[in-house]
Design a protein that fits this description.
Distance between the termini: 37 Å
CATH architecture: Up-down Bundle
CATH topology: Methane Monooxygenase Hydroxylase, Chain G, domain 1
Strand content: under 5%
Helix content: 55-70%
Shape: globular
Largest sheet: 2 strands, antiparallel
Number of helices: 11
Structural class: mainly alpha
Length: about 250
């Protein structure tokens, strides 16, 4: 029993180290690889500390289906999946790939909420990238609902300001109706994602301040701006979403 317990513990340690290693490479491809390439292609907006790969100006061409970083990342993950599938039992593969799916989601969302600004054109590119990442994340595993929620939240970047209220609270316009993104993802979560819109703040006399439509919308919703204080990124992790679902069930 001692022998098998030690063997199991060593196996778990090896798998966790593999997860950490792959997660580090995911971070590198998305950030160091993808953003540096994008920066050299003038997709960054200098007055917003770069803006990220999805701050694409209006009128830009979107010929490529995915960003170079996501293309490379999905290719690498699919290639590694074959080897991981051969090395693990079906049960272990399911658990490992579910954990990897959550790590991948967390890395992308953390970057999005802390560093990226998203334009309406860039939102199309981001949506394509999310679909590609979701597809590779679902090669195995049992819990990928975090990607479904992210797909819903991306609508706050594709919607004109005058139609955002309907997206957030539903057609009745009631912030407490439990409909819209407020009902699905939560009020604070929806507003934090919305705050990454590139038009959320504008420069006035070299000072960034909320756009008029943001002030009017928040007042209409009777909601404070959660980004006026510190945003706890841990609340937006895949594990946090899973815990919420478990509580509701």
């Amino acid at each position: 029993m001692s022998f098998f317990q030690e063997l199991e513990e060593r196996g778990e340690t090896a798998i966790l180290r593999a997860l950490d290693t792959i997660s580090t490479h995911i971070q590198w491809l998305l950030v160091a690889g993808g953003e540096n390439v994008t920066k050299n292609r003038v997709n960054f907006i200098s007055d917003k500390s770069g803006g990220g790969p999805y701050s694409v100006p209006a009128g830009s061409s979107l010929e490529n289906s995915n960003s170079p970083a996501v293309k490379s990342l999905t290719f690498c993950l699919r290639a590694q999946f074959v080897h991981i599938q051969a090395a693990l039992t079906p049960q272990s593969l399911s658990a490992f790939w579910t954990a990897l799916s959550m790590r991948l989601y967390d890395i992308l969302v953390t970057r999005l909420l802390q560093h990226y600004f998203i334009s309406m054109v860039g939102a199309v590119k981001l949506s394509r990238d999310v679909e590609a990442l979701r597809s590779v994340a679902m090669l195995a595993g049992t819990d990928h609902q975090h990607w479904d929620m992210l797909r819903e939240l991306l609508t706050v970047y594709m919607t004109p300001p005058n139609a955002l209220k309907t997206i957030l609270v539903g057609p009745e316009g009631d912030a407490n109706s439990g409909k819209g993104l407020f009902g699905q993802a939560g009020k604070v979560q929806s507003l934090v994602f919305m705050s990454r819109r590139i038009d959320y703040r504008v420069k006035v006399n070299n000072v960034l301040q909320k756009s008029n439509w943001v002030v009017d919308l928040l007042e209409d919703l009777g909601a404070p701006d959660p980004t006026d204080g510190n945003v706890n990124i841990a609340l937006y992790s895949a594990q946090s979403l899973r815990n919420k679902r478990l509580k509701l069930n």
